[in-house]
Amino acid sequence: MVIPFSTPRRLQFIIGLSLVAFVYLLLAAKEFAASVFAGGASEASLHRAVALSPGNADYRHRLGRYFQYLGGDPQAALENLRSATVLNPHDARYWFDLASQYQLLGETAGQRTALEKALEVEPTAPDVAWEAANFFLVGGETDRALREFRVVIANEVSLVDAALRASWRVRPDTDAMLRDVVPARPDSLLAFISLLASKKETDGVIKVWSHLAQLHEKFPTRYLFDYVHYLIEAHRPEAAMAAWEQSADSLGLSAYLPTDQNLVVNGDFSLDILNGGFDWTYVNRIGVKPLLDASDFRQGHRSLTLTFEGPGINDAGIQELIPVRGASTYDFSAYYKSADFQGAGGPQIVLRDAYTGTALFASDPLNDSDFWKEVHSRVTTSSSTTLLSIAIERTPAGSPIRGKLWLGDFELAPSGAAKDGSEHDGPEGFERPSENSKETR
Prior knowledge:
- There is one protein chain.
- The chain is α+β, with helices and mostly antiparallel strands.
- It has two domains: 22-208, Alpha Horseshoe (Serine Threonine Protein Phosphatase 5, Tetratricopeptide repeat), CATH 1.25.40; 281-414, Jelly Rolls (Sandwich).
- Helices cover 44% and strands 19% of the residues.
- The chain contains 14 helices and ten strands.
- It has a five-stranded antiparallel sheet with strand order 1-4-9-6-7. It has a five-stranded antiparallel sheet with strand order 2-3-10-5-8, with no helix packed on it.
- A hairpin with a 5-residue loop joins strand 6 and strand 7.
- The N and C termini lie far apart (106 Å).
- Mean pLDDT is 85; it is low at 26-31 and 420-441.
């Protein structure tokens, strides 16, 4: 049903509608003008923005920050920042800047109230937590400070080291830090380990690593290598091997574990050479070229080939570290073949105490066999020996040498241990020749 309008009523309706539209456009224009003025950098333009839109908390906040950093009027800054929090109490930035202004004015009570409001609005904001932590720290409220440092560590990578160091200064206790400050996740625990290692807190480092291993979460393998290296340098090879075993499954390194029958990791070179931890490690030596060779091997499906072609060679640059027991007897064996050697002497397999450098075994020069030949010996460690190194050394050191050496099937086991002959798959590593395997020669 259509309701007819008389001419006077129609005119009144049009006038009313036009008035509403005019008011709306006026308000919109006013807000637009305020936003334009708020984008200016001068005091006058910010004042105009506030005058045009007095209920806008953001414009009050901008004017307050202007006085805080450029205007040189602390009281005007405080008034406007406080007004911003009244207009919008749900923005942590407003409370945070208000707290900073209270701090500049030396008003501790106001600073505390503003910080606590900021924490209430955004309890996980790292900048707010950092400011609050330092405030509570200065005030002697250590527990509250540590709780806020924990928020920082959990939410802002760039502040993790600073937060850990500040926390350790006031509470140098590994257990307390793990309980109250350091989140139970790999990145935070690894950062804490780095701090403790820098302070030579070795027992603490070991304790934190145990917490990390119990998470059973993956993290970059280089951290395990660094940790093992640190503990070896600290003369704690047993703890280093414990970490290697704890982390092997999570990091996909289970194939790199020693066994009771063979303490040498990757002794047949069937796995990638990790160049870290308790696998083989190597450094480039001028005149020595290493190669994982799938064309010639005794058993398994690869050997390590070392090509010597230069003067001044002292060692091949490859070694492996093996934790052992003191005053114990071990059976060692390895296989080699060689070809085209020229020069005095030749390379040797040498087992040494990794800490004292004392040689427990040195093979005869390995330059006299064109077929796979065994090197073996029974070695007894001294009571103080905890770590052995296996290396390929050059005798006489420093003299020119040319030739090619194949190595494989390294084994070291306590005397009397049974050999299981197990092999591993999935290799990659050094430069390789063709993967067409030949039969064992």
